Amino acid sequence: MRNNFQLFIIFLVFLITERLINPDLALATQAHGAPEGIYAHQMAHLIFAFSMGFLIYWQRKRNLVREAGWRFIQYAALFFILWNIDTFVVHLLDEQFNIIQVKRINLWQMQINVITGHRSLNVLYYFTKLDHLLCVPGMLFLYFGLRRLSEEAGQNISENTQP
């Protein structure tokens, strides 16, 4: 049993190391099949962003943001709204408008070409492809918020059960 676990760990480390050293593509935003896949996916981004806006409204209406845990979750919702808008724009540029062409020059360089020739779209596309800068903080705030709420719930239970 122990040898199988060690082999699994070695295999897992090998896979991770191989992917870090020799990635095929490092795309933060993945593509979806056209046309139904991208439309459904875009609608999901809008619904997700709207839901996070509703969550923020609900938290503020009930004054939950006074508690640290709910405040962290509010920050997470804000980052998720920004992330959804960001990825919505990337999908529009990449898959729906088809005006962006990305060419790999070598292992460390890529060239972004806009068919219309507008340089501002190059810059917009470059920065919107960095969507992990919005998604990761959102997930961290969600984790900290849930952890804080869980700790507070545990304290309330222990206080109520003590004689």
Q: What's the assembly state of these chains?
A: single chain
Beta percentage is 5-15%
Mean pLDDT score, rounded? 87
Number of helices: 5
Strand order of the largest sheet: 1-2
The amount of helix comes to over 70%
- Shape descriptor reads flat
The first-to-last residue Cα distance is 45 Å
Q: What is the gyration radius calculated from CA atoms?
A: 22 Å
H/E element order: HHHEEHH
Helix/strand class: mainly alpha
Profile the largest sheet: 2 strands, antiparallel
Uncertain regions spanning at least 5 consecutive residues: none
Beta strand count? 2
Task: Write a compact overview of the structure shown.
The protein is mainly α and 163 residues long. It is built from five helices and two strands. The N and C termini lie far apart (45 Å).
Question: Can you walk through the features of this model?
Answer:
With 163 residues, the protein is mainly alpha-helical. 71% of the residues lie in helices and 6% in strands. It has five helices and two strands. It has a two-stranded antiparallel ribbon with strand order 1-2. Strand 1 and strand 2 form a beta hairpin. The chain is flat. The protein starts with a helix and ends with a helix. The mean pLDDT is 87.
What features would you highlight for this structure?
2 strands; mainly alpha; 163 residues
Topology:
Blueprint: H1 2-21, H2 36-61, H3 68-96, E1 100-104, E2 110-114, H4 119-128, H5 132-161
Antiparallel strand pairs: 1-2
Helix pairs in contact: 2-3, 3-5
